[in-house]
Design goal:
alpha/beta; 284 residues; binds S-adenosylmethionine
């Protein structure tokens, strides 16, 4: 029997997080893509685009002073630190990787945020009962790793205070039928294998799961046009992956490049989209 997706993700991030931080395009520890939206004119701002959207939601909710935030799949806590450096909120990060907990704890200490921000190891599909309720919960490029998205929503919805918001920024398939077509299906499969994707849903399917917990979709942005696709480094990786083929899957870091290369292709072809979805829990 193969290991559950959460265990595969734990091993993957334990082995690769330092590599991501040293060789990736990270800024201050972010392990997500840069979004070059309108008016964004430097890499730092592009990497914090989604973090800024989170700050915007806290402000519109009137929770910028004392809001409680939870990051499900927090990496090394970079988004939490960014938000807490800009707004006096308190936050908790949850990651499946014990190595990331160590790195997050030192990042939090480095920013002197240990009184307001903490990071613990845990599975977002099986959270401890005693967690604080939150005003804003988010998952940036972590939702797709889970093999049980229904369970993700169940856990997230339980943690949301009345009026709270849930933001997911991730890759979504544009049409479920694409997995059954020869060309799109094979590229999507490469993406899933390389990036340890546990579930790939359409935005509508995701919203149906949210609706089961009475969450109401209030924002749906397609960020795909603002991603960097086909840069010289991406073309070089595409060439390398053509040479290596499936054998890249035998090496942790190359596996990530294999998945990333397939993802670029799927985004360029319009089979997948990088979207930001936000739901609100009604007041009782
Ligand atoms: C691509 S990284 C994104 C990290 C962070 N959100 C960021 O933007 O920097 C994916 C994250 O999802 C986490 N993750 C994957 N499966 C998880 C699970 N079942 N429970 C908790 N975290 C999980 C990984 O540990 C990792 O931190």
């Amino acid at each position: 029997m193969s290991a559950p997706e959460s265990e595969k993700a734990r091993r993957f991030y334990n082995s690769n997080t330092s590599l991501f931080l040293n060789f990736g395009h990270s800024s201050g520890g972010s392990i997500h893509r840069a979004v070059w939206a309108e008016n964004i004119n430097n890499r730092e701002a592009a990497l914090h685009y989604v973090d800024e959207q989170l700050c915007r939601h806290l402000r519109t909710m009137g929770k910028e002073q004392n809001g409680q935030i939870i990051d499900l799949g927090c990496g090394v806590g970079a988004s939490l630190c960014y938000i807490a450096n800009n707004l006096p909120v308190t936050g908790l990060g949850i990651t499946i990787s014990d190595k990331q907990v160590q790195l997050a704890t030192s990042l939090i200490n480095q920013h002197n945020l240990q009184k307001r921000i903490a990071c613990i190891q845990g599975d977002y599909c099986d959270l401890p009962e005693d967690l604080p309720r939150a005003d804003l919960i988010f998952a940036i490029e972590s939702f797709v790793h889970g093999e049980n998205p229904a369970r993700f929503f169940e856990q997230a919805a339980k943690l949301m205070k009345p009026g709270a918001r849930l933001l997911i920024c991730d890759d979504f398939i544009n049409d479920t039928g694409l997995v059954n077509q020869a060309q799109s299906g094979s590229w999507i499969e490469r993406f899933k294998q390389g990036w340890l994707i546990g579930s790939l849903l359409t935005a509508d399917e995701t919203d149906e799961l949210a609706t089961q917990h009475e969450l109401r979709l209030i924002e749906d942005l397609d960020l795909s046009p603002w991603l960097e696709l086909g840069r010289p480094r991406d073309k070089l990786i595409a060439l390398l992956m053509k040479l290596l083929g499936k054998s890249a899957l035998n090496f942790q870091y190359l596996r990530m490049l294999y998945g990333g290369n397939a993802l670029q292709y799927c985004l360029q072809e319009g089979w997948l989209a990088y979207r930001l979805l936000v739901w609100e829990k009604p007041y009782e």
